[in-house]
Amino acid sequence: MIHHVSLGTNDADRAIRFYDPVLAVIGMSRRSLKGGSVGYGSAAHEYLFALEKPVDGKPATVGNGVHIALAAARRTVYRVALANGGTDGGAPALRPEYDGNYYGAFVHDLDGNKIEVVTYSAS
User: Fold this and answer.
1) How far apart are CA 2 and CA 6, in angstroms?
2) Exposure winner among 30, 40, 97, 103, fewest CB in 10 A?
3) 70: domain range?
4) How many angstroms from the chain centroid is the CA of residue 103?
């Protein structure tokens, strides 16, 4: 079981402006902001997702081929992400190669991290 996932950011304030509305769509809210690190959780889990400045002091960079997938109840997360400065990383569509009801979309956050949003819902 995964406890939480962390992504690097070079600007926590900018990351908050993107992730606060995007994660709200899937039921997560900001729980902490300390020294350039931001933590998010849900009603059931206090801490699930974090954005952090790298501890080695070097700039945060993205990993080629690395992404995290967020489960969503609705298909609106992609639009919210783009409306808050995210960029397209793969348009929303059914992805039958995974499952006949698997609907996924990919976006890049403001630091370039690739985020997938997955739902099995038709709305």
Assistant:
1) 11
2) 97
3) 5-55+66-119
4) 16
- The burial of 3, by beta-carbon neighbours within 10 Å (0-12 exposed, 13-18 middle, 19 or more buried), is given as exposed
Per-residue pLDDT of the chain in tens (123 residues, 90 and over written 9): 677 899 999 999 999 999 999 999 999 999 988 877 899 999 998 889 999 988 898 999 998 888 899 998 888 999 999 999 999 999 999 999 988 999 999 999 999 999 999 998 877
Residue 28's domain is classified under what CATH number?
3.10.180.10
- CA 13 to chain centroid, in Å, comes to 15
Q: What is the pTM of this model?
A: 0.86
In a domain, residue 60? The reply is: no
